[in-house]
Amino acid sequence: MKPWPLEKIPRLGERAVTAIVQSIAQAEMGRHGMPGFVACPPQDFSAMRWQDFGLGPEGVANVARQCNAMFRASLAPPNLAEECGRLPLRILEHWGDGPVAVTFFTSGSTGKPKPCTHPESHLRQEITSLAPLVENCTSALVTAPLHHMYGFTFGLLLPLSLGIPVRCVPPLPTLAQAQMKPGDMVVGIPLLWSRLADLRGWKERASEEGRGVTALTATAPMPPDVAHALLRQGFRVIEFFGSSEVGVVCHRFHPDDPFELLPHISRGKGPHADMLERCLPEGECRLYPVQDVITWLDERRLLPCGRIDAAVQVGGVNVYPGHVAAILEEHEGVRCCQVRLMRPEEGHRLKAFVVPAMGWTVDALRESLAVHVRKRLKGPERPTRFSFGEDIPRGPVGKPTDW
Fold first, then answer.
1. Span 99-309: which CATH code?
2. How remote is the C-alpha of 315 from its chain's centroid?
3. Mind listing the pLDDT tens digit for each residue in 351-365?
4. Is 215 exposed, middle or buried (0-12, 13-18, 19+ CB in 10 A)?
């Protein structure tokens, strides 16, 4: 695979920064109970005023705070009467002629999300390896937020580099499917593809519905049956694997194949064979620890086998079942509990098995736990199914087992 010329990869200018600020503002709208998506291009967003966008002083202050964290700036919140496009310009003015970098945050659910800062040169280099995989696509349909690393890379910088138009839609299966057209590369996560496959009955039949469409997926493992279902509909499927620290590491086109490293990534050598080595555009080669259990088939091909840190993905967000269980056990009515990700046939959220403390009935505990969960856990962390019993289910050798 011949790398894409670096000179074709644009630097981060007004268009890119405006799209990121708009994405942050849309997410803030969602947190305030408003529709978290505004279907307008960045140029229209720029001409709007914050008071017309729908955010009050607190919301606008939160947007500025997140922009400061992402762009390593210290800008004051905009005035509500100020045009939305002024904030991206202030960010560019802050950068000036100095080094440009973007900080993304891991979606971990314990403590504060971890910041991962990437210089502009590293982000552009990554596109030289990704662009050849989708260079025949003529448009992009993006369902991932542009201020997250996956959405930024595949929904913003990659389409800009290819010179193709972008359409952003909320991650709703019916809406995304209605918007797909031949030539699209559709930026989605496994949950979107799973729900779409179930909704359309694609696991049971073959069709031509995906002919000419490239389905991109990342942030979590794609269930093999879903990938096979997409292939039977004519989709071209590309699954990516990476991390917030390194970026995109590898890709594959078929769920039965191993992943192949991108050209600028290699396996560490000698005592560092369990690490990844990235050759940076400045000429330096840097080692990165791998956050997953990896089975290496050779020096360029690998199979990820699950997270080392025991994180699972719920709706594209890293969630730690052990952390969730510890929060549940802080409730006085819980003697102990076990939290797991649901099996594919059960759903896509967490489930919990709870052993009630002495004196608590199941009905009383269920009602009280619902309040405790809403107060202490974020949306993706909240178990949506609770089971109750006298002891944690265990297998023949005494280890906790599924239920």
1. 3.40.50.12780
2. 8
3. 999 999 999 999 999
4. buried
Per the prediction, the chain carries an average pLDDT of: 91
> Which residue(s) pair with 307 in the sheet?
292
> Architecture of domain 320-388 in CATH?
2-Layer Sandwich (3.30)
pLDDT of residue 38: 61
Q: What are the DSSP calls for 271-323, one per residue? A: GGTTEEEEE-TTS-EEEEE-SEEEEESSSSEEEEEEETT--EEETTEEE-HHH
pLDDT at 2: 79
Domain edges within the chain: 1-98, 99-309, 320-388
The residue ranges of the chain whose pLDDT is under 50 are 109-111, 397
Q: DSSP string of 23-34?
A: HHHHHHHHHTTS
Decide whether 99-309 matches 320-388 in CATH topology.
no
Strands 334-341 and 317-319: unpaired
Residue 397 pLDDT: 44
The tokens describing 37, both together, are: 């998506």
Q: Are 61 and 76 in contact (CB under 8 A)?
A: no
CA distance 286 to 280: 7
